[in-house]
Specification:
alpha/beta, 4-stranded mixed beta sheet, two-stranded antiparallel sheet, globular, transferase, lipid biosynthesis, acyltransferase activity
């Protein structure tokens, strides 16, 4: 197992991220056709030691809340909206700083004069089911079936045909299966999976933000967005950018 002096290991498929293991025990990786083998990690480790990392040794200085505040400032700047015009703050994460959530801390740090509503959205309340074994293949089949149905329902509510979709924006782990089922070419699918891996709750807004900043998504484009997550929850929306 390859680690650096700080006790981090790197996954070869997500070159911009590193993960901490908290002395809870770690199983050694075996050779795998998927590339998650110890030799692959060794190569990744050597090439990534100089990458900028989150300052995990100083959580009081940098945390999920501080990162959320920074992201909020960038979003407000791009939208040309002032902090005092914010009516609602939503924080979506599976790893809050505290069990009670981060949204109020983000609201305070932003300094919103109007005291907007601020709360966290989570769907990972699985405590009482932790001893159950998930049928992963069946869940995937269910997601691939339900997400296209949800998008089609949203299109019908919006009075739009499927051909009006300029971009398909999905939770990154089901991109290929859903786009194939909906017969949407890969050129119209927004994906940053190759750069960051699966970023969970942040995958859809992160991918959209990057697509806008590089000029891929332009004003007037119609986007079909859908997500599928913990607790067997799913949602979709159709919106026009700009």
């Amino acid at each position: 197992m390859a680690t650096n002096a700080s006790g981090f290991f790197t996954a070869p498929t997500v070159p911009s991220l590193q993960f901490a293991f908290l002395d809870l025990g770690f199983l050694p990786l075996r050779e795998s056709r998927r590339g998650y083998s110890a030799p692959a990690l060794l190569k990744a480790q050597r090439s990534m030691l100089e990458l900028p990392l989150l300052n995990l040794d100083h959580p009081s200085k940098e945390s999920l809340s501080t990162l959320a505040v920074e992201a909020a400032h960038k979003a407000l700047e791009m939208a040309q909206v002032g902090v005092d015009d914010v009516d609602l703050i939503l924080v979506c994460t599976s790893t809050p700083d505290e069990i009670f959530g981060c949204a109020p801390k983000v609201q305070k740090a932003l300094g919103c004069a109007r005291n907007p509503l601020a709360y966290d959205i989570t769907a990972a309340c699985s405590a009482s089911y932790s001893c159950l074994q998930m049928n992963g293949k069946e869940v995937l089949r269910f997601a691939v079936r339900v997400v296209p149905q949800s998008i089609e329902y949203s299109l019908a509510k919006a009075g739009l045909p499927a051909s009006s979709i300029d971009w398909l924006l999905l939770h990154q782990s089901i991109l290929d299966a859903v786009s194939t089922r909906m017969q949407i070419p890969s050129e119209q699918v927004i994906s940053n999976l190759a750069n960051y891996g699966n970023t969970s709750a942040g995958s859809i807004p992160l991918a959209l933000d990057e697509a806008v900043r590089i000029g891929k998504v332009k004003p007037g484009h119609t986007i079909a967005a859908a997500g599928f997550g913990a607790g067997l929850t799913w949602a979709s929306t159709i919106f026009r950018w700009g």
